[in-house]
Design a protein that fits this description.
The chain is an alpha/beta fold. It contains 10 helices and 18 strands. The model has no long low-confidence stretch (mean pLDDT 93). Bound molecules: aspartic acid.
């Protein structure tokens, strides 16, 4: 039910949705928000209040950084009490990373924060941006019979689908359906109505106050395995000065080569207090390290199983936990727990 007294803050960070074509080079470049507003008279016709906050300058999301995530959190914190929900317009390229990071930076969230964008600029006839934006705004304003927000989560809305943000990954560079949530059900599907999947929606502990975590530790690396990977490459990753966390992208259900030099380097990293998290390169399914001998070896040297977490969420979770000042043993413990619905923990 749309609350006609609702106030939604629309935060424009950049991305294709507001870009225009450079007449000389033909490349799409960020443009200012007045372009978006003039192309979206529909916003004025919504039956609730929408106010806007603009990032200046707007960015291509390939330029997103920890400091830009911190700015996004700051805008939400500053305006948290004043608004019922937030919509962040963001480029699709790194939207899944931003969704994962913000999900850990915003703790005990009790209002919707919806990221959306588009694959075609809003001024193009065939743009996907209008529907994405209008529906995201409606979801941000939606309340249940008791007046509580229906989706008090950090989500991505694209192409009729509402997804938990830290479960998403960008799967298509061309199609309007750019995102998928391979290991978790959609939170809502928009057809004639918006149909919410209420049992899938996370309600964090409502007795606890919302908390804004700004510190992220940047000393992380993603090491993607491939057949023929050399010891120099593995060593270069694992000996980065100050390194604290590694997202190890393995094969299938969490397998890696077991040759002695590889296992020795991983063991050495773990012994130096680096947290190594095993995430599968597969889009669907989960890490089960004890299934094969090759996975068991990793488990024995102290690698943490990431279950069905995405690379984006594993990275963000490590950044956030070390950023909060946890010690490696505490981080390992917490990597096994679902903090924001980012993993499916099987008992
Ligand atoms: N390069 C753009 C960005 O991520 C693509 C998009 O908006 O979809 O900012």
């Amino acid at each position: 039910m749309i609350d006609t007294n609702a106030n939604v803050l629309l935060i424009y960070t950049g991305g294709t949705i507001g870009m225009v074509e450079n007449t000389e080079s033909g490349a799409l470049e960020p443009f200012n928000f007045s372009h978006l507003r003039s192309n979206m008279p529909e916003i004025k016709r919504l039956n609730f209040n929408v106010e806007t906050y603009l990032f200046d300058p707007p960015i291509d999301s390939s330029d997103v950084s920890i400091s830009i995530w911190q700015q996004m959190v700051k805008v939400i914190e500053t305006n948290y009490l004043k608004y019922d929900g937030f919509v962040i317009l963001h480029g699709t390229d790194t939207m899944a990373y931003t969704a994962s990071a913000l999900s850990f930076m915003l703790e005990n969230l009790n209002k919707p924060v919806i990221l959306t964008g588009s694959q075609l600029p809003i001024g193009k006839m065939r743009t996907d941006g209008k529907e994405n934006l209008i529906t995201a705004l409606e979801i941000a304003a939606d309340k249940d019979e008791t007046g509580r927000p229906i989706v008090p989560e950090l989500c991505i809305y694209m192409q009729k689908l509402l997804m938990r943000g830290n479960r998403t990954t960008k799967v298509n560079a061309d199609h309007f359906s750019a995102f998928n949530s391979p290991n978790y059900p959609y939170l809502a599907e928009a057809g004639l109505d918006i149909r919410y999947n209420k049992t899938a929606i996370l309600r964090q502990n409502e007795d606890r106050p919302v908390c804004f975590n700004y510190e992220l530790d940047r000393y992380m690396v993603v090491l993607k395995l491939f057949p023929g990977i050399s010891r120099e490459v593995v060593r270069a990753h694992l000996t980065i000065p100050g390194l604290r966390g590694v997202v190890l992208e393995t094969y299938g259900s969490g397998n890696s080569p077991i040759n002695p030099w590889f296992m020795e380097m991983i063991r050495d990293a773990v012994d130096r207090g680096i947290v190594v998290v095993n995430v599968t390169q597969c889009l669907y399914g989960s890490v089960v390290m004890h299934r094969y001998e090759n996975g068991q070896r990793l488990e024995r040297v102290g690698v943490i199983g990431g279950y069905d977490i995405t690379t984006e969420a594993a990275l963000a979770k490590l950044m956030a936990l070390f950023g909060k000042g946890y010690q490696p043993d505490e981080v390992k413990e917490l990597m096994y727990q679902s903090l924001r619905g980012e993993i499916t923990v099987r008992s």
